[in-house]
Amino acid sequence: MTPAIPVDTAVPFVNPRIRRMLTDPILPMLVRLAWPNVLIMLAQASTGLIETWWVAHLGTDALAGMALVFPAVMLMQMMAGGAFGGGISSAISRALGGGRNADADQLATHAVILNVVLGLFFTAVMLLFGRPIYQALGGEGAELEAALVYSNVVFSGMIFVWLMNGLASIVRGTGNMLFPAVVTCLGAVLLVPVSPLLIFGFGPIPAMGIAGGGLALLLYSLGGTVVLGWYILSGRNAVRFGRGPLRWLGFRDIAKLGAISSINSILTNVTIGIATALVAAKSGVGAVAGFGTAARLEYLLIPVIFGIGAPMVALVGTNIGAGQKDRAIRIAFTGAALSFVITEIIGITAAVFPVEWMSLFSEEHGAIDAGVAYLRIVGPVYGFFGLGLSLYFASQGAGKLLWPLACGFLRLAIAALGGWLALTISGTLHGLYFAMAAALVVYSTVLALAIRSGVWFRNEPQ
User: Which intervals of the chain form a coiled coil (predicted)?
Assistant: First the structure.
């Protein structure tokens, strides 16, 4: 293993952006890197909400069908952008922090190949097994058919979702948060008119219904892939595509961290998926649509936290690569505190105005009641979700994901088993929602205590 270069000797020779990541005051630097990401990720997530609003005009079955598919689509976004994407950024930033620029170039090439393979794999899985998966989540009848139409369109081009996120992660690994954010923003702006145009049609463009929403998402991903690929190939990025021979170690560095991170992402989506199934078993399609719409706000928090977490991956990774462990820990908890404040404000606002949120998407009383109850109970603890997820991103940067994974399983156990038990005893959805809220609090608290105790650096040579 190549030893890290001491900061005092490395700083004069490294890229100016890397030098600032190693020396600048933490909070101002984190805010400077995070704010464009947060705004742009909010814009991207908002386009999903706009699409939901348009699909709601197609009826409750279409809205419920989209709710069934949404966890699977978000899983892909979280795996491509947060899990494997975080693995890419972490590996590249640690290489740059240690002065190994050629290794960083090679990692970029390996990352693209890996993302192509994964995108094709998930396309095959969902096209072949989409129906039984959505049936297992409680889908049936017209809502199941709507889910399959939307899912088949989206997953037919899943390779572009993976490629766009992989290329953006290569750029972010160099500490450049602005360019991927600009690409995301412009794509989101274009998606706003394209989505209803394809859903409802206009002039020579036929109305495609819920399939149009899926096609709009694919066009957005394709455009982002082209622009980000051009940026790296043009030489404007600090890391380029290495042309050396492919090495197993290059794939392993990314795949190992990405696979473990993916399990954490899967746990988040499985938690929501199981809760959706429990709601479906207890109540009707209206409650499923209401819960799915309300839970979308929790998914909206993920891009917000990612806006802070992406620079945390690069900052923590770069500082650990340079041997600055104490600074890496301070970066982690500074980012976690910032995430807590932002997501708690959003959660409390949703809990105070839940009817206003739900009324944007449905007028059916069953859907509104189920969604309002969820937001009033779970919304006030959204800050803990922000805290835990941001520490997960920091752990990605450190390359240490055992504790985030263990805490993810703990959250799943409390939400799923505790939720089922509470639902059985209380006979209402409120018991399930209280279990989901408790799971968030325990998840983030245990993870924060573990990182504070020094688990990142145990069993390492001094």
Answer: none
